[in-house]
Design goal:
Elements: H1 2-27, H2 38-69
């Protein structure tokens, strides 16, 4: 019972917010998007850098392994990822 009332109030609030936003857009007022927390952005950037660093490290380890296994032929050589 109370859940139904809460849902109806939230639905009406979302509708009114959308109506107000739409009217402001029609008037030419710009919408300011929510600011994303810089820590989250930095964390995502660090994860991407870590992936790139890991790929580069794997590539270098493969190259070093190929140097160690070289016997004048292509036997024992691993393909280096691009």
């Amino acid at each position: 019972m109370i859940d139904g009332i809460i849902y109806r109030v939230l639905l009406m609030a979302a509708f009114l917010f959308g109506l107000k936003t739409g009217m402001n857009l029609n008037k030419g007022v710009s919408i300011n998007p929510l600011k994303i927390v810089p820590k989250v952005i930095n964390k995502v950037a660090n994860i991407k850098e870590d992936k790139k660093a890991k790929e580069e490290l794997d590539k270098l380890n493969t190259i070093l392994s190929n140097i160690e296994n070289y016997d004048g032929t292509s036997k024992g050589q691993k393909k280096v990822g691009a």
